[in-house]
Write a structure and sequence with these properties.
Structural class: alpha+beta
CATH architecture of the largest domain: 3-Layer(aba) Sandwich
Shape: globular
Number of domains: 3
Helix content: 25-40%
CATH class of the largest domain: Alpha Beta
Strand order of the largest sheet: 6-24-21-20-7-19
CATH superfamily of the largest domain: SGNH hydrolase
Amino acid sequence: MKPIKTSIFILIVLFLLSALSFVFPKDGLKIKNIGTLRFASFEEVFSLKKTHYADISAIINSAELKVDTTTLLSIDTTSIATDSLLANVQKSDSSENLANSIIIDSNIKIHNIEYPENANDILYGFFKNLSSAQKSKEPVRILHYGDSQIEGDRISSYIRYKLQKQFGGTGIGFLPAFQIYNYSVSMKQTASDNWKRFTVLDKAKAGIENKKFGIMSLFSRFNDLNSNDSTVHEAWLKFEKSKSTYNTNRKFVKCKMYYGFNNSPLIAELYQGENLKNVKTIMSSDKLEQIIWDLDNNFDDVTIKFSGKDSPNFYGFSFEDNNGILVDNFALRGSSGLEFTKNDLQFQKDMSSKLNTGLIILQYGINIVTGNSKDYSYYENWYYNQIKTVQKIYPNAAIIVIGVSDMSRKVEEVYESYPTIEQIRDAQKNAAFKAKCGFWDLYQAMGGQNSMPSWVNHQPTLAAKDYTHFSYEGAKKVAEMFYNSLIFDYNQFVKRKSS
């Protein structure tokens, strides 16, 4: 074939392919057992399409905020402070990622907690409790609710450590009877193999008739539900202090056990090390009960052995101090934060009344992101209803909603933020403001659009290869950023109180 004919043939083929590309489905044509057939776009062919990963260096290199209550008392965000350490305090609106941020010196950037209009004092009641936590008769609790993003006590553990260092208290707070994903950084848990866990997410599957799951949205048992056999069952739980956790997590002087709804009595024996410390007879009950054990902090592990014909529902074990601060980690894998209304409201109130709760943190969203809805007003309404339910359960507690984090999907050879994230973030913020709650925008705090790949590729890595979950190092960074924002507002509260 002559060169001119070859050139004409190639041009005709290219023209036909180009014409076909305009009518071909944008997302490609799925072919069973083969894959997806798609045309490259004009931008891709000529390398015009660029995906830029967020620059997170300023975020990652940001220093830890000093938290003693005199450090920030001279800060006035309406005028530049004269203190040399704080000389560069300013509101910054220079970019989308820095909007709603405060820069302290050149090494500290704080992404603000946002508040509804004319409601900047939402956290003042909690801050008042913080300032007197060491003198309180029981710990001031912060309940950190979330999905798998906070599993393993990631994020929560660092917030707990920093607050306990500043405001006193020790202990890890609430734990379920046993962990089905046992990789917590703060406490090693083991158990006999006859334990079963039931969550509000499993309600229909498990055939559970009532909705009494408690404030953790789960309970555990060592025999079947509604069992009528006369067999004496034996079971045990072991809680062992982690050697790699923060030192405040390793200290506690009390163990509180929440249980109920057992048809017959049973015996509970508490051991520290090999030493039997206490024996209790647990009578049959049709309501929520509580046992408090005093502990010797010299031992590294606590074992509780049970023997009886029927297991109670165990709603949680709390390891704590007599006062100070506690941060409870309530992670529920697969949750979208829409389960509070599926749980018995009065029972949650009964359990919450036994706690001195000052703050609720709600951190959800990653289980909504992969949907393809065009409008998330439905989610905003659902989430608002959940927040209002939480306010009924904890009427004296302030609430901060932490917005969804960035998540990435693979598009061709690069990872890009899911297109739904900002809509979901906005729905969460709107719901929070409508309910008169604070909002902390994690998506923007971590760098905004296409920031997750930067966290994954950072050395050491700050997020997993699923481009969804933070690593322990990344979780600590998120916790540090949130803590800096919280303690900054606390110091502003102290300043106004003293002026």
